[in-house]
């Protein structure tokens, strides 16, 4: 049985050796075709920015331990409860959110750029598809399509929970736009989080000032003053820090080298596929016949 397997293996090797030039030629031809085909694909460039997800000042945790039960209750009513971890996750969620992307696309009028194959730049209108004869709606892509493309193909957010570092990357055919979009998204996320924090502080301060007017107890009033002082500091922190939630460690730069297509891999894949097909055809053409088993 082993001798028969050895003979079969030798025959397979011999077929490969006798047709090696044909296999090599077809493999090289396939590599050239695959390499040439890679030029049909739009080059994609990768721009990224490295961010430090700086913990936003804790809302009330730094003073709750110093307050009595009444002060702690007022802090909760004023919205001063949550800690740094919840704020950190809120920042990541905002950076990944659809609301941020939808507003970014709308403000920049990016639909004609995202779907340039469907945009008639000369006539400033969307191209009709063949199925429009069946009474389809406006050929312009909707917000769902735009977000799906941006979220799945263009933007990526990766978080390292151990270090607190966040990487925002953009992949697009225009390297300059890729870098600009990455920077703009970070700027918008910080601005949104800053404005939200300022609004929270203003509402909390309004509430606490009302409580001072109503309360006559010295202990409660002292607790309220501590809460007001802490909230004023947080409000000032938000107003003066543009990098409120994300501090830029490495700003996005315009990439010089494309990410894909990798033409060398296309050529290698073409060579392997072409060579394999050539060898399979050589086996089929061969006069090799398995010895009959008795």
Characterise this structure.
This protein has 294 residues and is α+β, with helices and mostly antiparallel strands. The two termini are 12 Å apart. It has 11 helices and 7 strands. The chain has 2 domains: 1-41 and 271-294, no CATH class; 44-260, Bacterial polysaccharide co-polymerase-like, CATH 3.30.1890. The longest helix is centred in the middle third of the chain and has 40 residues, at 175-214. Residues 58-72 have low confidence and may be disordered.
List keywords for this structure.
294 residues; alpha+beta; Bacterial polysaccharide co-polymerase-like; 2 domains; two-stranded antiparallel sheet; 11 helices; 59% helix
User: Hey, roughly how much beta strand do the residues contain?
Assistant: 5-15%
CATH structural class of the largest domain: Alpha Beta
Number of domains: 2
Average pLDDT taken over every residue:
81
Give the CATH architecture of the largest domain: 2-Layer Sandwich
Number of strands: 7
N-C termini distance: 12 Å
Instruction: Spell the H/E element sequence.
Output: HHEHHHHHEEHEEHHEEH
The share of residues in helices is 55-70%
Q: Can you tell me the residue ranges where pLDDT is under 50 for at least 5 consecutive residues? A: 58-72
Shape from CA axes? elongated
Largest sheet: 5 strands, antiparallel
Structural class determined from secondary elements: alpha+beta
What Rg, in angstroms, do the CA atoms define? 32 Å
CATH topology of the largest domain: Bacterial polysaccharide co-polymerase-like
Number of helices in the DSSP assignment: 11
